[in-house]
Amino acid sequence: MGDIKQQIGVEEVLAYLEANPEFFLHHPDGLEHLILSSAPAGTISLSQRQTERLQARNNQLQEQLHSLIDTARQNTKLEARVHGLCLRLLDTNNLNSLLPLLMTELKQEFNADEIGLRLFYSESKYVLPEGLENITQCHIDDESLIIFDKVLERGHPVCGRLSNAQKTVLFTEVKNKVASIACLPIGHDPCCGLLAIASYDQDRFHSDMATDYLAFLGEVLMRLIRMHNQVNNGE
């Protein structure tokens, strides 16, 4: 009878070695028949290759861990900043003290390069303090707000990048410099405005940032703005 050669597929070989990881420990002679790709320093052993793969995987896990730790630290600092800012805002008595404090504190506490505030009104406009940069108001049905429909419908802050059209509305003169933004609706039912905290650094505000604290800031602002505006209008 002639020799019968059994054809074994690659998947079967891999499955067998996975099921028997100590195969070459018990059959070291089998290593002599393997052909390994060579590196600049010469042929490497299976154990070297395995060590390199494990080291690469370990380095990747270490990088992911450090990234998670850094994000956690940033979020802890963000929580403290928002907490302190809200307390200072609560001490204000009117829009003339609230809005200047808000704009100044945001630049200092959040290391922001630009701040944009858009207030929405339905019937009567707000009485705003003079001389404040990039604070405007528009009717809640203004067509320019259509591009923010998704942000407003979501009712939750977004961090990262906005479209050029959105940046044009919020930061007309410096839109090309703005690289990352934290954009938060001011309250809900109905929302009374949009607050945008911008940076020229594309990594300053990113999607991994905690937004619950920013949402809380928006809720506090909504209540303070409405309360102070009622006082100004003698309601």
How would you portray this structure in words?
By secondary structure, the protein is α+β, with helices and mostly antiparallel strands. It is built from seven helices and seven strands; from the N terminus they run H-H-E-E-H-H-E-E-H-E-H-E-E-H. The chain has helices spanning 10-19, 23-26, 46-90, 95-109, 149-154, 164-170, 212-232; strands spanning 38-39, 42-43, 114-121, 135-139, 158-160, 180-185, 193-199. The strands form two sheets. Strands 4-3-7-6-5 form a five-stranded mixed beta sheet. A two-stranded antiparallel sheet has the order 1-2. Strand 6 and strand 7 (193-199) form a beta hairpin. Helix 3 (46-90) packs antiparallel against helix 4 and helix 3 runs parallel beside helix 7. The longest helix has 45 residues, at 46-90.
